[in-house]
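step=encode ok
step=design start
structure_in=
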């Protein structure tokens, strides 16, 4: 049996383990605390901190070094197993977003949050998202707008995106199979987010479908692609800016403050276009 929550037509998604109606997640964060001991007068790291996102708390969690019992995952708190301390607590939406099944080029939280702020959307906004990909961008934006309409030419991508939307408990996303260049049937949108191979082909659609005065964002891994967009920009669209958002983590351990080299330095360039005519 597949349970389904009630929702808007086209925006309903099947419930999956890890979510319940009403906005509360069953997802849990299991944190294995790091362990430091003094050896020969020096502090040594015996085990590093590890974090796990648990989507199904109805069964035991099998870690590489021990089994964490289901009862502890359900109740949460702090416990010790085989000399290793664990803390378990409820996950929030950012945790679940980071744990969604994603493709090679899925938007990150740092970029999504910046885009959201720049587009100036509200709880009354209707937003166009394309291509759907894993559904990560549609899921993120769905928290802050009235409705997200998401297009993708791949049936497989749509299937993955719907599963992620169910995991994220997004009931205000409408997924459509079709080309954002030619198949958008809706009249107008308050904001547009594009992550597509040839964004210059979408300029005509943006001119027709974006409300005057509002913004579209093109998410692109390289500047060559965006140069094509600017070269073909119609009179009705104004290039507001193109930016790269960098995240720089820092280590604050052992009274030493130093930056940590991120695993991924560059994610994408964000090109913002405003419809002015």
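sequence_out=
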């Amino acid at each position: 049996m597949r349970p389904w929550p009630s929702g808007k037509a086209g925006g309903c998604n099947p419930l999956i383990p890890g979510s319940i109606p009403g906005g509360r997640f069953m997802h849990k964060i299991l944190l294995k605390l790091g362990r430091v001991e003094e050896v020969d007068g020096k502090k040594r790291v015996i085990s590093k901190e590890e974090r796990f996102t648990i989507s199904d708390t109805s069964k035991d969690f099998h870690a590489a070094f021990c089994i964490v019992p289901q009862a502890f995952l359900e109740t949460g708190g702090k416990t010790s197993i085989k000399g290793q301390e664990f803390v378990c607590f409820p996950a929030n939406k950012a945790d679940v977003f980071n744990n969604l099944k994603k493709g090679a080029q899925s938007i990150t939280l740092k970029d999504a949050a910046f885009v959201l702020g720049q587009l100036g959307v509200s709880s009354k906004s209707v937003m166009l998202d394309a291509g759907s990909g894993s559904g990560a961008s549609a899921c993120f934006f769905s928290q802050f707008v009235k409705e997200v309409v998401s297009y993708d030419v791949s049936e497989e991508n749509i299937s993955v995106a719907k599963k992620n939307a169910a995991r994220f408990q997004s009931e205000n996303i409408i997924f459509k199979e079709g080309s954002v260049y030619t198949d958008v049937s809706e009249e107008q949108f308050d904001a547009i987010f594009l992550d597509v191979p040839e964004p210059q082909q979408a300029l005509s659609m943006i001119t027709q479908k974006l409300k005057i005065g509002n913004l579209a964002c093109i998410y692109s891994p390289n500047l060559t692609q965006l140069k094509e967009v600017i070269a073909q920009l119609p009179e009705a669209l104004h290039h507001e800016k193109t930016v790269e958002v960098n995240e720089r983590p820092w280590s604050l351990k052992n009274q030493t403050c130093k930056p940590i080299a991120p695993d991924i330095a560059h994610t994408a360039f964000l090109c913002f276009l405003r419809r002015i005519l």
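step=design ok
step=annotate ok -> The mean pLDDT is 88.
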